[in-house]
Design a protein that fits this description.
Blueprint: H1 2-21, E1 25-29, H2 39-51, E2 56-59, H3 69-89, E3 95-100, H4 102-113, E4 120-124, H5 139-143, E5 148-153, H6 161-170, E6 175-180, H7 191-196, H8 201-220
Parallel strand pairs: 1-2, 1-3, 3-4, 4-5, 5-6
Helix pairs in contact: 3-4
């Protein structure tokens, strides 16, 4: 009887560990002009939490100037601190970093430079170009080791898809791209485009979230390297 109970306890502990490994903690940061209390961030936090079966999605508000690279590195240090605290709080659960706009660049900087063990990075509207059209510093992308998924609107003025494709080919990590057809920097799509394709904004965003969930599941199971 004691032996049987011991075996059952061992199986339960093993199942619990396996479940934890597939349930990530997500640290999610917005970009300039967007707060963690905005409708966009609240909506995407809820969608990611549900689709990824996350133990928690922790939103981190950043205070930085998008025009000063040194300030971005300062913000990345704070983001890295928050990521380490999240990993410590949920020990045993994989850490996923996510960001909107400049928040996605910060996530890449944290993975590349802050010594945080990261299972994957989710880039929602990565800003490959600045306000002037000049290509932004992509050092972080070149140094990222964890798998990265980009979700980009096809009409995102801050990230021409051709330039992103060229950048992705130079990256040293596994990466994928999901394009939101007709979407802008925030994935918003014009009514005419939605009507012409018999779609709703919610359907388009849920499709993107489904692609992200499949990608993260593959990462956690070791199928994205």
């Amino acid at each position: 009887m004691a032996s049987s109970l011991s075996l059952k306890r061992g199986r339960c502990e093993s199942d619990s560990l396996s479940s934890a490994r597939l349930s990530p903690v997500v640290v999610f940061s917005p970009g300039p002009g967007c707060t963690v209390s905005s409708d966009w961030m609240i909506s995407w936090k809820e969608m990611l939490e549900d689709a990824l079966d996350a133990v928690e999605v922790i939103t981190v508000q950043q205070l930085y100037s998008s025009g000063e690279l040194s300030r971005q590195y300062d913000a990345a240090s704070y983001h890295g601190f928050c990521a380490r605290m999240a990993a410590r709080k949920y020990s045993g659960h994989p850490l996923v970093l996510a960001g909107r706009s400049l928040g996605s660049r910060l996530s890449c900087l944290v993975e590349a430079k802050e010594g945080v063990e990261v299972a994957a990075v989710i880039c929602l509207g990565y800003p490959l170009e600045g306000m002037t059209g000049a290509v932004e510093d992509d050092e972080a992308l070149m140094q990222v080791k964890a798998p990265v998924i980009f979700v980009q609107g096809s009409k995102d003025v801050f990230c021409p898809l051709g330039k992103l494709e060229a950048t992705r080919k130079k990256m040293n990590c596994y990466n994928e791209l999901h394009v939101v057809d007709g979407g802008n920097h925030s994935f918003r799509i014009g009514k005419r485009h939605l009507l012409a394709n018999q779609l709703t904004q919610d359907e388009v965003e849920m499709k993107a979230v489904g692609v992200i969930a499949s990608f993260i599941s593959g990462c956690l199971r070791g199928n994205r390297k």
